Each structure stands twice: as structure tokens, then as C-alpha cells.
Fold this protein.
Amino acid sequence: MQKKNQTEELNVVFNKLIVDYKTLRLSLADIYNQSQNIRVLSFNSAIEAARAGQAGSGFKIISEEIRNISEKNDAGSQASNAVVDSIEKKMYDLIGIRTADVAFDIIDKIDRNLFERYCDVQAWATFGKIIDACSMPSEETYEKAQNVLERMVRIYEVYHDAILTDMNGIVICAGVRKELRGADLSNREWFKTVCAEKKIIYSDMYYSSSRKTWAVAYTCPVIGADGSMIGVLSTRFNWQYILNIVDESKVSPTGEICVINSEGTVIASRNRSDILKRNLSDTEAFHQLSSDIPYGFCYTKNAGSSFSVFGFAHTCGYNSYPGKNWSVIIREEY
């Protein structure tokens, strides 16, 4: 709660800074306009003084002094505008860096979470009862393995299910959907890929038609005592836990945050209707990410005096988990 309050206060500070900046811009513009009016007045006065001849000589001196003051004001305005231009860039940069930092913080939290899921399936595949079910198939070993998976899913709370198959793709047991036992999943891409590569694989985020929600599959070979592959263990991570990270991020209530895959498709957002339906591949932030710029920001000026800041960060992975080539893009408007 304290971090959230600090974030809200920081947004208030930025907004006040921008209001003060715009006020300063208007004041400088007003000073410049007044200076131009004085210059016109000086010019007209010089004309009238010339018409008056000798009688207007004193007024001519005053007119010239007024013009000199106007020119000095113009020079001061130009110098002030140069300073304000520099302040404007620094202000944009400050907001941009802060927005990029938030994007980095979010992708880092996602990577850490998914690293744990990456480790879970590999650890579970080494459990004795899981190996026994694959190497010594029987109703007894199946039941024990199923109890293990059921307990793991219940304890960890972040999984929709965990499925164990033999080398033919036949489901031996499942932690939740026990009715899957005996089903032939040999035609599933995750099964064919893990059998071919004989190493852990993990899917992009996808919509599960059976669960009617979003998920990520982590699949690992089960290795027997002789080092050969004897089965396949596959988990289904509940994507809601990533959406929770997005929902709790340090982004203003009016800001926008999107997690995108390598193709720019939105896979997480506070606006759920964007998920798997919106694509950001045409944005400047995505173009920079695609140009091997893993972290940064850009901004655009909108109609009127508002502007949008985009902060972005690409996955760096975490420890042995290399990541899925995902990124976070945040847009804040001021």
C-alpha cells in the first residue's frame, strides 16, 4: 500500500510539474508578445517624431530607448526559451526513464514468477512416484503418482492442472482433470516437441478452450534410471497470476500497460478485452524493441499541449530461464 501511495504521489508531482511548465511557456509567450507590441509602438513613435522634425527630437530619443528595451527583452526571451526547451527535454526524459523503469520492474517480476514454474515441472519430473508410474505401469503406481500431482497443484495454487503421459502420449494421471486418464494426447504439439528435443519446453501464452481461460504450458521429459526418456510431465500455469502483477503495477489509473509476445500481440493488460486481440507491432516502442533495444522510452506530442510517454523493457530471463521473448510497453499521458 505504501508503494502504491508513493507512486500516486509521484504521478501528482509529475502532473504539477507539467502544469507549471506549461504556465511558464505561456508566460514567456506573453512576454514576447508584449515585447513585439512595444516594438511596434516604438516604430510608430519614431515615424511621428520624424514628422515633427526638430520638435520631435526628444520623443525620438525615447522611442529609441523603448526599442532598445524591446530588443533586450527579445534576447532575454530567447535565452529563457532555450532554458525552458532544455527543461522540457529533461522533463520528458525524467518521466520516460521512470516509465521505462516501471516496465523493467514488471517484466522482471514476470520472469521471476515464470522461472519458478520452469523449475517446478523439472523438479516434479524427478519425484520417485512420477518415475515409478512411467517405468513400472500399474494401477497402484498410477494412483500414487496422481496423488502427488493432485497435492502439488493444490499446494502451489498457481496451476490449472498437471498431466503425466507415457511415451505413447496416453495420459497416465492428472492432478485435477482425472477424466483425462487414458486420453491420447500424442498429437499435441507440446508432446511431439518434448519427445523430439528431450528437454523442457514451454509454450507462449494461449487461450485454453477446455479451461475457458488463459494459460502457459510447461512440459518436461521424465527420465528413468538408465537415463532414457520414459514419460512426459506437463503443467498448465494459471495466467491470472501474471495479470495480478499487471494490475498491481506502478502505473497511473489513466495509464496503459501491455505485456506483448514476440509478434507484438498483447498477452496481458489491465484491459482484458485487449488480450490476444490487440497488436502493438506498429508502435515506435515495438520497433525499438525489435531493433535490439531492450530498455528505453519514447514520447509523442499530441494535439493541444498534451503528450504521451512510452516506456518499454524486454525480457532478460532469470537464472536458467531464458524467457519467451516477451516485452512490456507502458503508455502514460500528461
Summary: Helices lie at 2-52, 57-124, 128-135, 139-156, 189-197, 240-247, 284-290. The longest helix spans residues 57-124. The first strand starts at residue 159 and ends at 165. DSSP finds seven helices and eleven strands in the chain.
